[in-house]
């Protein structure tokens, strides 16, 4: 979506308004501020293009490189809601697309912070392949040290003679408990993974409806309600805009 397209649309619909000059000035300010609230870490943004709908293939790249000035963004959209004369389908779409995608990326980031080891999160977020390889090697080294530590512990908690053979021949309680706890931990990790994966799938499917600027407001309202059942609370401005349009 370009600034030129938006200004043309707003100019046409305010043609008979005696305050057109003021409204166009407000619209241009809102559009400019929307654009500056979007930040690409690698400077990817193109001045003429404010925003394009993001595909699922963009998700990883955007998570690593895209951020939003949230306070500025919310201030701009609140200002937009005060001027119904400049409301149009294209600008509505732009705002909804940005807000919903921002919330999707925030949810993705929150889940990864909570579920990933810090070193893996940092390396994945950086997008630096060398950093990622070093982080994985570090984690593998720690894993080997943990295994060695458990072997040493087991060797001193089995019945005499204290050897690895007795661990498997007599199956003492300590390694059995360790195996049970490990399997339980892995099971919980799998359940959490499935739950988080389904949650994110619902969020990004909600966003996907905006791939066409002529989207259905009633349909997006239903998708927002569905995602709420999974525990998602969207930005309040999204609900305000949907309520005003349905």
From TrEMBL:
It comes from the Bacteria. The chain crosses the membrane at residues 140-161, 167-186. Keywords: Membrane, Transmembrane, Transmembrane helix. This is Uncharacterized protein. It comes from Candidatus Nitrosacidococcus tergens.
């Amino acid at each position: 979506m370009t600034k030129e397209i938006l200004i043309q649309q707003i100019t046409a619909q305010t043609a008979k308004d005696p305050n057109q000059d003021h409204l166009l000035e407000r619209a241009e300010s809102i559009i400019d501020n929307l654009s500056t609230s979007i930040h690409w870490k690698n400077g990817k943004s193109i001045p003429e293009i404010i925003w394009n709908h993001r595909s699922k293939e963009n998700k990883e790249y955007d998570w690593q490189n895209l951020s939003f000035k949230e306070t500025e963004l919310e201030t701009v959209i609140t200002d937009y809601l005060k001027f119904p004369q400049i409301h149009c389908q294209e600008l509505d779409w732009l705002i909804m697309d940005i807000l919903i995608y921002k919330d999707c990326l925030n949810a993705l980031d929150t889940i990864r912070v909570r579920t990933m080891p810090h070193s893996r999160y940092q390396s994945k977020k950086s997008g630096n392949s060398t950093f990622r390889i070093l982080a994985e090697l570090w984690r593998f080294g720690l894993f080997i040290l943990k295994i060695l530590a458990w072997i040493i512990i087991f060797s001193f908690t089995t019945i005499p003679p204290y050897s690895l053979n007795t661990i498997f021949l007599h199956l003492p309680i300590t390694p059995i408990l360790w195996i049970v706890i490990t399997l339980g931990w892995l099971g919980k990790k799998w359940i959490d993974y499935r739950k988080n994966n389904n949650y994110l799938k619902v969020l990004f499917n909600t966003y996907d409806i905006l791939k066409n600027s002529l989207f259905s407001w009633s349909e997006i309202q239903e998708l927002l309600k569905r995602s709420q059942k999974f525990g998602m609370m969207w930005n309040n401005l999204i609900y305000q805009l949907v309520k005003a349009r349905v």
